[in-house]
Design a protein that fits this description.
Strand order of the largest sheet: 1-2-3-4-5-6-7-8
Radius of gyration: 18 Å
CATH topology: TIM Barrel
Structural class: alpha/beta
Number of helices: 12
CATH class: Alpha Beta
CATH superfamily: Aldolase class I
Mean pLDDT: 96
CATH architecture: Alpha-Beta Barrel
Distance between the termini: 42 Å
Shape: globular
Low-confidence stretches: none
Number of domains: 1
Order of helices and strands: EHEHEHEHEHHEEHEHHHHH
Helix content: 40-55%
Largest sheet: 8 strands, parallel, barrel
Number of strands: 8
């Protein structure tokens, strides 16, 4: 059985709030960090996919990491998203994140250029040489077009500083020798905990973090807690993330507006109605109104 993740168990892949004119909304980001820490999160991935990292300039990206490290709630961890399909860029961002003081980095498989196994290994070896912090691999073939199968992950675990994997290929979610395994899809969080995985890097914890924390703390009730939350997961991912998460947070009054950067666009009327209905079914709008 794998040990509980040293970086946390309920890790929220936090959104990047923007203002109406598209600038970083730093005040809302800090407020959201503290809200999430009060509602189940014990760690954060900053500037990951949910944080719309592909549309952040390097200065903005590093500013969000700096802000998270400076303002993090007591007892929480900060994992900086620093991946790229350009190894030199991933190395640079990993070096800078390390200097800023993140607890670990999250490094996605190189996307679009589809390196072979030797290229993937060389990519992560170069990144590992750039930091003394833990590196969490990120396997998400649905976005990168490249899968890292379990035997390759076990091989990468031999690289110094590579300590974990965010596994978003549900078909291959399983223990990996030498790695802490984190569920990369909310719907598989319970399954990962059941086999002794380290936890999850999650999105729904923005709005149902207390329940997801209970899934960790109350293993005997895990399945019963998880079953109704499948509705939440399905709704939040009915279109490209974080569209529906930002819509939900706006409805709950936790961010001032569902502002995204192109090519991401706000929820349409049907998506917004589905999000509102989901929040109503789970009593979340009533809680927010109190």
């Amino acid at each position: 059985m794998l040990r509980v993740g040293a970086l946390g168990t309920v890790i929220t892949a936090i959104i990047t709030p923007f203002t109406e004119d598209g600038a970083l909304d730093e005040d809302t980001f800090v407020s959201l960090l503290h809200y999430l820490a009060e509602h189940g999160s014990d760690g954060f991935v900053v500037c990951g996919t949910t944080g719309e990292a592909p549309t952040l300039g390097d200065d903005e990206h590093l500013r969000m990491l700096e802000l998270a490290v400076q303002e993090r709630p007591k007892g929480t961890t900060v994992i900086g998203g620093t991946g790229s399909n350009d190894t030199a860029h991933a190395v640079h961002m990993t070096q800078r994140a390390t200097e800023i003081g993140v607890d670990a980095t999250l490094s996605v498989t190189p996307y679009y250029n589809k390196p072979n196994r030797r290229g993937i290994k060389a990519h992560y070896e170069a990144i590992a040489n750039a930091t003394d912090k833990p590196i969490v691999l990120y396997n998400i073939p649905g976005r990168t077009a490249t899968n890292m199968p379990p035997d390759l992950l076990a091989e990468l675990a031999q690289i110094e500083n590579v300590t974990g994997v965010k596994q978003a290929n549900g078909d291959e979610l399983q223990p990996i020798d030498g790695l802490e395994v984190y569920a990369g899809d909310d719907a598989n969080f319970a399954r990962c905990l059941d086999f002794g995985g380290a936890g999850g890097i999650l999105v729904a914890s923005h709005i149902v973090g207390d329940e997801m924390r209970r899934m960790v703390d109350e293993p005997g009730n895990r399945a019963a807690i998880d079953e109704p939350l499948q509705d939440v997961y399905k709704t939040l991912f009915m279109t490209s993330s974080p569209t529906c998460t930002k819509a939900a947070l706006t409805m709950l009054g936790l961010i001032p507006g569902e502002y995204l950067r192109l090519p991401m666009v706000p929820a349409d009327d049907a998506e917004r109605d589905a999000v509102r209905s989901m929040l109503e079914r789970h009593g979340l709008l009533e809680t927010a109104a109190r």
